[in-house]
Amino acid sequence: MQKVYHSCAEAVADIGNGSSLAVGGFGLNGIPHNLIAALLEQGAADLVTVSNNCGVDGWGLGVLLDHKRIARTTGSYVGENKEFERQYLHGELEVELVPQGTLAERLRAGGSGIPAFYTPAGVGTLVADGGLPWRYNPDGSVAIASPPKETRLFDGRTYVLERGIVCDFALVRATIGDTHGNLVFAKATRNFNPLCAMAGKITIAEVEQLVEPGSIEPEAVHLPGIFVQRIVEVGSAGKRIERVTVRKREGGK
Fold first, then answer.
1. Domain, as residue range, for 22
2. Is 230 exposed, middle or buried (0-12, 13-18, 19+ CB in 10 A)?
3. pLDDT of 173-182, one tens digit each?
4. Please, where are the H alpha helices in the chain?
5. pTM for the model
6. CATH number at residue 208
7. SS3 149
């Protein structure tokens, strides 16, 4: 199978309106921003996204939010995006909040062919009992609330049933990839990217460096190429730092 695409635009050309997308990244780290930019230009709308967070204002998935391209999103953290907050509270965006570890396992499970699993995370809260606002009405009342989930007792402890996640497409970013789709992630970019890649029926990877098969030692592969259907070389330009936390040097230099 020919997996190498010459441009991000070519790789995302068949993502249609209403498609579901698992998108890698954590904060601004490891975000497939080139693929997201190409998707914005492509014009697909009413998208259903699954990602740890929905980018920030004007960056990552935030650019799709800014243009009202996302209809529903599932994630764990939403605190860095004012437009996200505005759309959610005004009934323009449906949001499913999931505990971070549960989200990771739901993606892994979906990619492994596991339809559901039991976890103690969320037991005794609205996560399990239902009632989390998924969508608001414009007047602030709840239009859609999360339903209660099945629970079960194992060895005297209660667990809640969570469904695996499978999406139409996955967009991920890696540091190195070969033409067979084997990927290597540098440091913290190995966050949600492998899990999202597993959960996509068609996974599209942007990589900083594309190499020939055999260039990556087998034990160095973080994600096998069986999970990747398309790959694009994009270089390393355009990455951002979410927050600069280093202190100023003495003397202001």
1. 8-115+164-233
2. buried
3. 999 999 999 9
4. 8-11, 33-42, 61-66, 82-89, 100-111, 126-129, 193-199
5. 0.93
6. 3.40.1080.10
7. coil
